[in-house]
Amino acid sequence: MAMGHDGPPAYETAWTLQDVLNMELAAASMVIINTLTECSDDKIAWYYNSRTAAPTASPTIAPTTAAPSTAAPTIAPTTDGPAQGPTTTTSGFAARGRSLLGDDGSGRFGSQQVISTLANGAEGVYATDLDGDGDMDVLSASNFDDKIAWYANDGSGGFGSQLVITTLAKYARSVYAADVDGDGDMDVLSASFEDDKIAWYANDGSGGFGSQQLVISTVANNPLSVFVADVDGDGDMDLLSASFVDDKIAWYANDGSGGFGSQQLVISTLADNARSVYAADMDGDGDMDVLSASAWDDKIACQQVISTLADGAVSVHAADMDGDGDKDVLSASVGDDKIACQQVISTLADGARSVHAADMDGDGDMDVLSASMDDAKIAWYLGWRHPLRGRPINLRFPGVLR
C-alpha cells in the first residue's frame, strides 16, 4: 500500500528541518561543512566551520540523513536518566545555551550558504564526491517534485546549478551514495514513499547518471530510510531499508555489480512504524550489525531491544562516544524531545528528528548533532576529554547553530 502526498507518517511534518549531515570539503583548509534541508523554503544550504576565524553569533548546523536502524548484536538495555532542570544534565551529560569552545573558533559556524532553492519539499541530503574531482558534492531528495538531484562543488564550497538525476522517485524521502557496482565511483540510492520504491542510479565516473532508474525493490511499504553496508561480508555494498507501514527492516544482497535480484531479505517486522536504519559493527566481531528506530513502540533495537524509552523514536546512529574502542548508540525521539546515548544528553530538542555524531571541533573526540522540527533548531553537543585520562567523559551544549 502506498500513501499519497497528503498522508505523511506520524511524527512528520512537511514544514520542518529534516536532515543533518556532517561533511568535509576536500580543499586545502579541509573545513567542515554541514548541509541543511527545510521543506518550507525548498532550500539546500551549508555552513562554514572556521578553525581560525573569530566565532560568529548564533552559528548554524544541519541534520543527518545517513540513515539509522534495526536488528543485530546483543546490547544491554539502557535506562535513560531523568533530565534535571532547564540545562538538562544527566550523569555526565550537560546541555548549556552558551559556547564552551576556545578562542580559535573551532567548531563555530558562519552564516547560511545557500546551494539551491529548487528542491521542492526538501527531505534528504547527503555529501560525497560524485564527479571524482576530490571535493565533496551535495545530493538532495525532495518530495513535492519527486526529485533526486546533485550540486557540484567547485573545490572552495561554491556550488553549481541543480543537476537532476531523476524525477521518478515519487515523494522522495531519503538519498544516499555508495559504490554499488564496484567501478570505483559513487552511485546514488533513493527511497521514495509514494511508490514504495528503493532504487539506485549508476554514476559514469564524472557525475553523469543517464536516464535509467534501477529499481531494487517495490515491496518496502512506504520506505523512509536507506543505508548501505556490506551486510554479508562479500566485499560489496548491500542495501538496507526501513519502511513504516509494514514495520519492516530489510536488506537486499548485491551481486557485486549492482544486481540485487528480486529477493527482499527481511530482518524484522517488529519495528512498529520503522523510521530509521543504520549499520555498524556493534559487537566487535568484524561484521555489520543493523540498528533501527521505530516510532510507535518507542524502540531502539539491534537484534535485541536496546531501549523502549525513546518516546517516538525516529533516528538512530552509532559512534564511539566514550573512546573505549567500541560503538555506542545514539537516538533521537520526537515525543520526549530527547537526544540520548545510554543516558540523556538533552531534552531541549523540541520535536527531535535526527541525530548524528562527528568530530565537529577537531579535538579528536566525537560530538553530537541534532535536528528538531518544532523549534526549527540545528544544534550540537560538545564532547570533551578527561584532563588526565584523555578519554571523552562528557557532552556539553555549545549552542544552537541555526
UniProtKB/TrEMBL annotation:
Residues 57-79 have a biased composition (Low complexity). It comes from the Eukaryota. InterPro entries: FG-GAP, Integrin_alpha_N. Keywords: Signal. Coiled coil: none annotated. Residues 57-94 are annotated as: Disordered. Pfam families: FG-GAP_3. This is VCBS repeat-containing protein.
